[in-house]
Amino acid sequence: MVALIGTWMQTVGQSWLVLQLTNSPLKLGLIGTFQFGPILLFSIVSGAIADRLPKRKLLLGTQMTLASQAFLLAALVWSGHAEYWHVGVLATIVGFANVLDMPARQSFIAEMVSKDDLGNAVALNSAAFNGARIVGPAVGGLLIARFGVAPAFVLNGLGFLVVIVALATLEAQGHPRRRGSGTMVQDIAEGVRYALATPRIRLIMGLLFVVSICVFNFSVYVPLLARTVLGLGAEGFGYLMAALGVGAVTGALTLGIVASRQPSVAAMFVAATIACSGLFSLAFVHHVWAAVVVLMVTGYFGIVLVAGANTALQLNAPDELRGRVMSFYTLIWGGVFPIGSFLVGAISEGWGVGRAFLALGSFGLAATAALGVWWVRRAGHAGRRGE
Asked: Which residues of 197-213 are buried (b: 16+ CB within 10 A; e: fewer)?
């Protein structure tokens, strides 16, 4: 929680810093592309690495890298030398650290709890992530308004130091379950074959793709909504991010209460549809309280889908393939963000923020409907074959 609060403070600070330096929605979107591009390009490889190496040691390395990045960005801002390209380079470094961190961290959850508790563990992990989404942006917005963006970066770096200490005290090592004689390429191919051969996993990946590319571009959407549409400053931006987090943490806790071994496909379809509808609705929002309500609803159902997909993938994956399966989760949830953030920034700069909400929301609803048609037809064919 401590580290995640710092991360969300840095997210607010980084977005606000880019707007201060450039005042360009497109350049803000490009920062998301730089930060999440490595995830798009290298997630599949990092999943195979996570299945081959002790996960605790791998996580220690990634957290040290992330701490160093935060302190360096703070130093650049405090010294008055921060430029747009500095933010871009450091965002790329974060992307390379996260591409190793995310599949290792997600699969490490299963090393510490039984499968009976895995659904609740994933929900608690999501609750921690989104609880920080409430506190971090609100505190970050207040800090930026009073002291500038640098303190947010410093506190983020200190938060990673807390994680490093916590990881050093864990007894669980996350050793590989099985180390075969195959090459890295063969390991990757094995994971890809498993995912493609499992219809439920294909469906989960499809829904996750839709919500990720359309809905989870909040570090681009919300500052544009706050600054361009609603005319808010840094504090207002922070509170809008906090409203989003309230919805998300409520969704995560709801999922934890009703967690089952296999999240319902119907529930995931409903969650994806409402999340995309919330994004669509933002195109018509021009008042702060309406934006708060819509963001809460969008955050709630968005995280229900994401956490439900996480749980389903972990429960379906064999132990020896879990890192690779979770790398697909990482690839889709974080890896498509560069594409989505670029689209948001480009549409916003060319045609306005409202039309960006309208375009991405419409695409999300149409794609969710198409996946629903495919799933129903597949179920009908399977029933006729007696499967």
From this structure: ebeebebbbbbbbbbbb
